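queue> pop job 88
queue> type: inverse folding (structure -> sequence)
queue> payload:
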């Protein structure tokens, strides 16, 4: 989330990333619909590519801002020379029942909009553990109504045998170091689950006189109600608040906020929403101000990606 009084600006190294990724194009690309909670990193990993390649191929001017419902081009892996494996069939309910009696875990029915990463987070496991337990080769083959097995505990990943893994370079720029520090700090911090986070958003919004549906929709669009979310611009937490915006929210509220604490992060976002709804000329302008900055919206109008953001948030509001 950008500071409410300034425009979004892509990280200083975005153009360099585009140049570096220009050569990393895949033979074939297909359309992928972004889901709530998706990140470029997770999408890149699921399709065996890099964030830089996705940014370059899709010409993303603001990589840290992808929207639920947005269409993104992702690479399709070239077919292997050897015989391709048979397509994965829908699991037989009788087979599932047998598995649940012989292996530890809990059966789960996939719902519309579910992703392997989202299911893993909700059940405190990993996407890799889910894929292994259910023999899922491609996470995009999940279908609503399908029954899968949630393993009791994710097994630690084992390095490939007889193959040296090159050491990944650490963060080099100041922004990259700040993002790495934020992720490390949130990884060590205890956070509530989604339902608890939802209740906190509603209670905080009511306390500050903000429409709970608006606060819930903004929180879902920004992070999927995930306090450990960190964007490519170092916006952190459930409400994806930038450090500078957190300072400003503390001044508005008369007390400091710690964006790494769920309650404070939600309070900062709600306080900013209260300011925006009070000073904007319409609900659309207030929503746009959370994304683009109210000053930028009032002086330049909404950018195309801002309009898409407003539509997504209003769609979320209609469901709460």
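queue> result:
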């Amino acid at each position: 989330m950008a500071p409410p009084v300034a425009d979004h600006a892509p990280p200083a190294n975005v153009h360099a990333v585009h140049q570096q990724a220009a050569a990393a194009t895949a033979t074939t690309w297909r359309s992928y619909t972004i889901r709530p909670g998706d990140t470029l990193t997770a999408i890149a990993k699921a399709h065996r590519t890099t964030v830089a390649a996705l940014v370059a191929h899709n010409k993303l001017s603001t990589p840290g801002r992808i929207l639920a419902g947005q269409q993104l081009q992702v690479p399709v892996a070239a077919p292997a020379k050897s015989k391709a494996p048979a397509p994965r069939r829908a699991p037989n309910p009788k087979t599932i029942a047998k598995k649940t009696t012989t292996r530890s875990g809990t059966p789960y029915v996939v719902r519309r909009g579910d992703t392997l990463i989202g299911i893993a987070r909700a059940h405190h496991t990993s996407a890799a553990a889910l894929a292994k337990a259910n023999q899922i080769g491609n996470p995009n083959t999940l279908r609503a109504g399908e029954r899968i097995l949630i393993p009791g505990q994710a097994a630690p990943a084992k390095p490939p045998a007889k193959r040296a893994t090159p050491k990944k370079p650490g963060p080099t720029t100041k922004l990259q170091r700040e993002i790495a520090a934020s992720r490390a700090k949130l990884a060590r911090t205890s956070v509530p689950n989604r339902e608890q986070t939802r209740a906190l958003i509603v209670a905080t919004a009511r306390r500050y006189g903000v429409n709970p549906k608006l606060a819930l929709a903004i929180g879902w669009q920004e992070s999927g109600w995930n306090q450990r979310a960190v964007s490519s611009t170092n916006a952190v937490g459930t409400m994806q608040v930038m450090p500078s915006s957190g300072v400003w929210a503390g001044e508005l509220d008369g007390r400091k906020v710690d964006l790494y604490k769920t309650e404070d992060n939600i309070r900062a976002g709600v306080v900013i929403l209260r300011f925006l709804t009070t000073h904007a000329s319409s609900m659309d302008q207030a929503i746009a101000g959370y994304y683009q900055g109210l000053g930028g919206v009032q002086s330049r109008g909404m950018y195309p990606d801002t309009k898409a953001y407003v539509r997504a948030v209003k769609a979320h509001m209609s469901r709460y």
